[in-house]
Amino acid sequence: MAQRFNGNPAMDISIHASFLPQTDPEASLAFYRDTLGFEVRNDVGYNGLRWITVGPVGQPGTSIVLHPPAVTPGITDDERRTITEMMAKGTFGMLILATTDLDTTFAKLLAEDAEIVEEPTMQPYGVRDCAVRDPAGNLLRIQEKR
User: Fold this and answer.
1) DSSP 45-84
2) In sequence order, which residues have a C-beta less than 8 Å from that of residue 112 and are 6 or more positions away?
3) Going by C-beta distance under 8 Å and a sequence separation of 6 or more, which residues neighbour residue 35?
4) pTM higher than 0.90 for the full model?
5) 3-state secondary structure of 22
6) Measured between alpha carbons, how far is 127 from 146 in angstroms, rounded to an integer?
7) Cβ of 136: how many Cβ atoms within 10 Å?
8) pLDDT digits (tens, 9 = 90+) for 95-141
9) What Cα–Cα distance (Å) separates residue 131 from each residue in 1, 29, 89, 137, 138?
10) What is the pLDDT of residue 36?
C-alpha cells in the first residue's frame, strides 16, 4: 500500500531529466563524457543545433539534456540576450552532483583543467563540496556523500 500524505496516496515520481544550456556541443560533450565520466545516451541534431543527453553510468533513470540556449518558442530577442549574458556570468544554469570521494573527483577536475570556482570546502550548512563551471558557464556544485 502506498504511503499517504495529508490523506492522499503518495505519488511515485522521480527526476528523469534536467536541462542545462550548452553553447559548444563538442566542448560540453568532452566535459560531461570525458571529465565527469558520464555516458552519452542520445545526441540529436536538428536545424544545425544539437541536444546531447548524458547521465551517470549505472543510473539509467537520471539524465541531463544539454540543449541549445533560448530555443524555447516564444522567447524574445531581449530574453535571448539576457540568457546569453547570464550564462556568461554563470548565473543561468546550476546543477548539484554528489560523489563518495570528493578529493579524488576534485583532483580529476584539476587535471582536466576544469574551471574551478571553489575548492573542496566544508560549508556552514553542513555539506562539504566544491564548485566548477562547465564549458557553457553552468555552475556545478559537487557534494560529498556521507
Assistant:
1) EETTEEEEEEE-TT-TT-EEEEE-TT-STT--HHHHHHHH
2) 34, 35
3) 108, 109, 112, 114
4) no
5) coil
6) 9
7) 21
8) 999 999 999 999 999 999 999 999 999 999 999 999 999 999 999 99
9) 41, 19, 14, 12, 10
10) 96
The conformation of residue 34, written as its DSSP 8-state character, comes to: I
CA-to-CA distance for 145 and 105, rounded, in angstroms?
A: 12
Strands 139-144 and 94-99, sheet pairing: parallel
**Contact residues for 72 (Cβ-Cβ < 8 A; gap 6+):** none
Q: In which band, very low, low, confident or very high, does the pLDDT at 4 lie, cut at 50, 70 and 90? A: low
CB 63, CB 16: distance < 8 Å: yes
**Distance between CA atoms of 133 and 1, rounded to whole angstroms?**
43
